[in-house]
Amino acid sequence: GGVINFLFHDFWAAANVSQQKVHATRLHCAVCVVKFSFHFRCRTVVKKRLVKLVVNFLFYFRTDEEEPIGALLLEQCRVEREDSQTFSIAFLDEAERKYLFECDSEEQCGEWVDSIIKASYEFMRKNLIFYRTEIHRLTGKDPLEQYGISDETRFQVSNGLQLMPRDTSSL
Amino acid sequence: MKLHEKILTHYLSCTSPVDKEGYLYKKKERNATYQRRWCVLKANLLFYQERPGDRHLLGVIVLERCAVRRAESDAQFAFSLVFGPGLKTYRFAAVDRQTQESWVKALLSASHCYLSLLVRDLGRQYEEAKQQKGSGESRSSISPLKPSTYSFLFTAQGPTTAAVVREGRSNSDSTVLQAPPKPTKVVAKKSPKLWHRRNAYVTPLNGPAPLYGEWPLVGFDPLEDFRKLHDYYGQEVKKAREEWLRSRQTEEERSDEDLIDLG
User: Fold this and answer.
1) What is the spatial distance between Cα B223 and Cα B205, in angstroms, rounded to a whole number?
2) B126 touches chain A (CB under 8 A)
3) Which of A40, A93, B180, B239 has its CA 20 to 30 A from that of A159?
4) Chain A nearest CA to B1, separation (Å)
5) Within a domain: B169
6) Contact: A114, B179; criterion CB under 8 Å
7) Do B61 and A160 touch (CB under 8 A)?
């Protein structure tokens, strides 16, 4: 839809991550050129793309362009190592479609798989909850108290099998 | 630029936590009117639609590098997301003070960067706490995870994740997350076993991220820490609070008119 694209463009402009330099924006950015392919119903289209990881989005560009062609939200996805230099991302809603990324080296491939997994907001949230619980267990203190954010719904501990309580106070 | 909408709508409707949802009025800049929108805050994303459960997504705002400001100049209980000079400002209005406060608070802590720093900080505290506790504490009943043995599903919480096999553990008990096994590197070593098995690399449900030092931090300022960010946000909150107090005084002086155009 046109509206989403427009909104996202502002985010991209605000992020403004250049190839040469990462601004002191606390945005984690990794860049690499990959062969980027879409597997769709036995058809494979392979393109060479510049790929940038910014927070929990994977942007992809034509190698000589500054504006991204597209972006993938890295949530609810499965990242897999396909072979020594290739990894894939599959989204849970599109079982048929897999995005393949062919890197230049094993090491680069490994770094990307690692980075993409860690980029997920939900992954980070789980870790936060884990650390919070463990620190409390080890020290008797809730580490979020010192920041005054103990009550924030987004950081609540759950038993992992339940949904977090939804804040519907505004309904 | 194509933002894959299906991925977004899927994420919106999946079982991962909703951080806040409700109706808000969103200002349409073109004609300066407010339209009621169903807004859902999930992670660092603010989705909005006409109604809850709508197939069609009207838009999503990525909450990175934006300031959240109370702004009462053109509507009561208004707030805005300010991305900076030359970039768009998104304006919203709530129906009452409580709702406004609640949304502002939720949006202030929504960014990926914020969480990232918080996790780093807590990770550090965790390691310190473990060391202080000493290695005497017996956790040897839990063996380290071996990536080649597991097939993890990289999703948010859900009944399926309970099926993840763990040596000597059960997931069905306790509200407190259990102690982790010794963390192993997620990054593939040179072992050929890993590739040929085509395993998905994911996080164990109850495990920590790999050790602090292993997080790839390209371009990250190592001196920046959460405390600084917290102080910065503390200033924002303080400023916002002062604005609110000031506006409370003027609110009483304000006449009783409908400031939101629902036409």
Assistant:
1) 30
2) yes
3) A93
4) 5
5) no
6) no
7) no
- Separation between Cα atoms, residue A149 and residue B109, nearest integer Å: 9
Distance, CA of A58 to CA of A28 (rounded, Å): 11
Note whether A166 contacts B21, CB cutoff 8 Å.
yes
Contacts of A82 in chain B (CB under 8 A): 195, 198
Nearest CA in chain B to A15: B65
Residue B84 lies in a domain: yes
The number of domains in chain A is: 1
Which domain does A110 fall in, by range?
Answer: 27-124
pLDDT in tens, chain B (263 residues): 677 778 888 899 888 889 999 999 999 878 889 999 999 999 999 999 999 988 888 888 888 888 999 987 778 999 999 887 777 789 999 999 999 999 999 999 999 989 999 999 999 999 999 998 875 554 444 333 333 333 333 333 333 333 333 333 333 333 334 344 444 444 444 444 434 333 344 444 444 544 333 333 333 344 456 666 666 666 666 766 776 677 666 655 554 455 554 55
| Range 160-179 of B in CB contact (< 8 A) with A | 161-162, 171-172, 174-177, 179
Nearest to B19 by CA among B108, B143, B92: B108
Domain tally, chain B: 1
Whether A15 sits inside 8 A of B64 (CB atoms) is yes
Question: What are the start-end ranges of the H helices in B67-138?
Answer: 97-108, 112-133
The domain of B17 spans: 5-110
CATH code assigned at A45 = 2.30.29.30
CATH number assigned to the domain comprising residue B25 = 2.30.29.30
Q: Is residue B261 part of a domain?
A: no
Residue B88 is assigned to a structural domain of this protein = yes
Nearest CA-CA distance, residue B246 and chain A, Å = 23
Burial class (CB in 10 A: 0-12, 13-18, 19+), A96: exposed
Is the residue at A163 inside a domain?
A: no
